[in-house]
Write a structure and sequence with these properties.
CATH topology of the largest domain: Helicase, Ruva Protein, domain 3
Number of domains: 2
Protein name: Fpg/Nei family DNA glycosylase
Largest sheet: 4 strands, antiparallel
Family: Belongs to the FPG family.
Cofactor: Zn(2+)
InterPro entries: FPG_cat, FPG_N, H2TH_FPG, Ribosomal_uS13-like_H2TH, Znf_DNA_glyclase/AP_lyase, Znf_FPG/IleRS
Pfam families: Fapy_DNA_glyco (PF01149), H2TH (PF06831), zf-FPG_IleRS (PF06827)
Shape: elongated
Structural class: alpha+beta
CATH class of the largest domain: Mainly Alpha
Order of helices and strands: HEEEEEEEEHHHHHHEEHH
């Protein structure tokens, strides 16, 4: 799933490609992806792109006063085409193309979604804040106003909830997902199950530094990369997420996993849990 660093890089890349261009056409292939009806998607035809920005994990294309807002969800992505095909994408369960944006130059974007679980979402609105998920976002963790005190107040408010869940809840902190919450907690040497309100002042400072550094470095590495390069860049720089069974790059211990119904987390026992493996009820049931 694209998270804050990748969506930030996508916004920068697309801003350079789209700004000042006119949208010639928007073709929908997956009609369920469009979550709004007024204004219609046809209202974007002829609109000039004024800018591209990010709100948490949402991409926002500002075009002549309208906003095309996209949430790429778990398996969505954007692919740039120097020249789009003459034939619009057809509604089909086989094609990953959910929508295509055609520019006045003949270039354009394919908005794709892999897999069978379709959760990519697109909105055409007059104000980006009309998008329900966007309007309820928590603070952006890379802004100047997101201080250690702000993080501390959030953790106290969340009480005994586990750190992992607090970090990735978009209404609490915007932009952090499953991968970067794993990476932040590994960098902070904290268990994903640690209660949010149990941190000492020193632990809060450590977690804040790990959050800002992990996300900031990922944004810096991604900046300037084309969309086609972002997934590989992210994967090659992860310390624990998606690395189950491999050696922790810090201590050499084996990275372990806890599985849930529709996701999993990865961690290093030596770095994060005092050498103790976390209970994985799903795996325990399989072994019985």
């Amino acid at each position: 799933m694209p998270e804050l660093p990748e969506v930030e890089a996508l916004a920068l890349d697309l801003a350079g490609r789209l700004q000042g261009r006119a949208i010639a056409e928007v073709h929908l292939a997956a009609f369920s992806a469009l979550k709004t009806f007024d204004p219609p998607v046809s209202a974007l035809r002829g609109a000039m792109v004024d800018g591209v920005s990010r709100h948490g994990k949402y991409l926002d294309i500002d075009a002549s006063g309208l906003h095309l807002v996209m949430h790429l969800a778990r398996a969505g992505w954007i692919r740039w085409r120097d020249e789009v095909p003459a034939t619009p994408p057809r509604p089909s369960g086989k094609s990953p193309v959910a929508a295509r944006i055609v520019l006045d130059s003949g270039a354009g974007l394919d908005i794709t979604e892999a897999g069978t679980k379709k959760s990519l979402a697109m909105y055409v609105v007059r104000d980006a804040q009309e998008v329900p998920g966007l309007a309820s976002l928590g603070p952006d963790p890379l802004t100047e106003t997101f201080t250690a005190d702000v993080l501390g107040a959030i953790l106290q408010r969340e009480g005994r909830k586990q750190l992992k869940g607090v970090l990735r809840h978009q209404g609490t902190i915007a932009g952090i997902g499953n991968a970067y919450s794993d990476e932040i907690l590994h960098a902070a040497r904290m268990s994903p199950y640690k209660p949010a309100n149990s941190l000492t002042d020193d632990e809060l400072a450590t977690l804040y530094a790990a959050l800002r550094t992990t996300l900031g470095e990922a944004v810096a590495r991604s900046s300037g990369l084309a969309a086609s390069e972002l997934k590989g860049e992210k994967k090659s720089n992860l310390a624990v997420h998606g690395r189950t069974g491999q050696a922790c790059p810090v201590c050499g211990d084996t990275v372990r996993e806890v599985s849930f119904a529709d996701s999993s987390l990865q961690y290093c026992p030596t770095c994060q849990t005092g050498g103790k493996p976390l209970a994985d009820r799903r795996m325990s049931r399989l072994l019985k």
